[in-house]
Design a protein that fits this description.
Helix content is 18%, strand content 28%. The chain is of the alpha+beta class and 515 residues long. The radius of gyration is 24 Å and the shape is globular. It binds fe (iii) ion and calcium ion. Calcium ion (CA) binds at residues 175, 239-241, 412.
């Protein structure tokens, strides 16, 4: 055994050892515990992301308060023999030692591989595809849709399966984290039954930037989530739980004064930026963040990624699942805010693209939520969805009418749904695919109790399913096919994947066919 003096002497010897040995001893723990990610692909590049966090749940991820250089490399092959770009970025304490590199100068429509290195430790390799040239005419696009990943509700097995898919990119519709405290038992929100969390959130309800950082760290330490990020570039957006349940604009549901809630929102936005592979254009600016944006896959598809939280007017009828009240028809209501609405209107006028996709967060179909014929005398609606904002919803439908190439992608419901959007004269306007959750809601089943009533009361609904999973979309010039991929369980490891259904929209028709 060493006494203290001998130990000090051997520590000094170690410090004097060659560089290679010093590099091996620089970190107590592996610093890339939160994995790597790529995002916002373009024809000439994408963003690559990592964060140094040797102790992910400790303050500042276990990092000291200095900046630290992180080397990055992008190659045209998975063995990094043909290096195409490399450099060094600073991981700064102001941004939780995260690194966002916007890689440019790459070739369109091909895979690249990337990795990071800091203090003698290296990440695994990630893969990202660039988008095709905007003037090209691709004949096929396959991409994934995922979101709603409550850590307590289930394992991320669906992400492990998603990582194995051959995809151009993944659209994430939000609820990347949930702000709730850790609870050993709680009531299942739609039945009131006891729900036993599969694993537990560390900490209390989130308010400060350190709270949000720690929650992202807990989620991002998950190996299946890391696999999905390493396999595909993501277009990430946010919904409510990145900040607070059902927040809109500067309003929460606790009657917090707006100027006070904005402080919490600013902390949540900064932590979102720090942990997402997004561009500098989405850098948090005071209490706001620019998250709506678009991407173009040659002339085959335009994707409009919406922000349905930040500019929205308050939910009508006191929010929640409620009978319809007059405010649902308010002409003053807004879902996107004037600027985003005008931006979307301009994008929808484009005639040089085969499919126009609205990739967004909350359901656009108007669904009567009554689960039994005797539950209530009048329609019950989810006041957090587009259906409770009929003014802006019909304004949007007026712009979609006659376009015959629009597909809406949605999350939030924690169930799979597919159906047609009808305007106020009951004319079909577009198809909507609602993706289930990665884990939120737990194991699930084919149909929730009461789904037969919902299907009978809502003829525009063509498909409902209550299992966890993700979507893959197969897009060609002639048809948009959406595959509902589900896992049989998320409460125990190794849930099996199956394709629950495929529904198709033929180009030029507002219709939804089983295929
Ligand atoms: Fe959710
Ligand atoms: Ca949500």
């Amino acid at each position: 055994m060493l006494n203290r003096r001998q130990f000090a002497a051997s520590a000094a010897a170690l410090l004097a050892a060659p560089a290679l040995l010093r590099a091996q001893t620089m970190w107590r723990n592996y610093p890339f515990s939160l994995g790597i990610a790529s995002g916002d692909p373009a024809p000439d590049g994408f963003v690559i992301w990592t964060r140094l966090a040797p102790d992910p749940l400790e303050p500042h991820g276990g990092m000291g308060m200095g900046a630290m250089p992180v080397k990055w490399e992008v190659a045209g092959d998975e063995r990094f023999q043909s290096m195409v770009a490399q450099g060094e970025a600073q991981a700064r304490p102001e941004l939780a030692h995260s690194v966002h590199v916007e890689v440019t100068g790459l070739q369109p429509d091909r895979p690249y591989w990337y990795r990071f290195e800091a203090g003698g430790e290296r990440t695994i390799r990630g893969r990202a595809r660039t988008l095709p040239d905007p003037a090209s005419a691709p004949q096929a696009l396959r991409f994934g849709v995922a979101g709603c990943q409550n850590f307590e509700d289930g394992l991320y097995t669906a992400y492990r399966h998603l990582a194995r898919e051959d995809l151009a990119f993944v659209f994430h519709y939000g609820d990347y984290i949930y702000e709730y405290r850790g609870d050993p038992l709680r009531p299942q929100h739609w039945t009131g039954d006891v729900f036993v969390p599969v694993r537990q959130h560390a900490g209390q309800l989130l308010f400060s930037i350190d709270d949000y950082r720690r929650r992202y760290a807990q989620y991002k330490a998950d190996a299946d989530l890391q696999r999905a990020h390493a396999a595909h570039a993501f277009f990430t957006t946010f919904d409510d739980h990145e900040v607070d349940n059902n927040w809109v604009a500067a309003i929460d549901h606790r009657d917090t004064p707006p100027e006070v809630f904005r402080l919490r929102r600013a902390a949540a936005f900064q932590a979102w930026y720090e942990h997402m592979p997004v561009r500098r254009a989405s850098f948090p600016n005071a209490a706001a963040i620019q998250a709506y944006r678009s991407a173009r896959f040659g002339n085959l598809a335009e994707l409009n990624f919406l922000d349905t939280r930040q500019y929205r007017s308050d939910q009508p009828c006191d929010d929640g699942f409620k009978p319809v009240c007059a405010d649902v028809r308010s002409a003053e209501a807004t879902m996107l805010g004037a600027e985003q609405e005008a931006w979307l209107a301009r994008n929808l006028q484009r005639r040089d693209v085969r499919w126009n996709c609205l990739a967004q967060q909350v359901m656009m179909m108007s669904v009567d939520r009554r689960r039994s014929p005797n539950e209530a005398p009048a329609r019950i609606m989810n006041m957090d969805t587009w259906a409770a904002y009929e003014g802006p919803r019909q304004r949007l439908f007026a712009r979609l009418r006659g376009l015959d190439n629009v597909v809406v992608l949605t999350g939030d419901e924690h169930q799979n749904w597919a159906g047609l959007l009808h305007d106020d004269r009951d004319r079909p306007i577009a198809a909507e695919f609602v993706s289930t959750s990665i884990s939120s809601g737990g194991d699930g089943q084919n149909l929730r109790p009461g789904s037969d009533t919902i299907l009978a009361n809502n003829p525009q609904l063509k498909f409902v399913n209550d299992q966890r999973g993700y979507l893959t979309c197969d897009v060609t010039p002639d048809a948009w096919r959406t595959n509902f991929m589900v896992v049989d369980r998320v409460s125990t490891p190794d849930g099996a994947l199956s394709k629950r259904a495929t529904l198709a929209v033929p180009h030029g028709q507002v219709d939804l066919l089983s295929s």
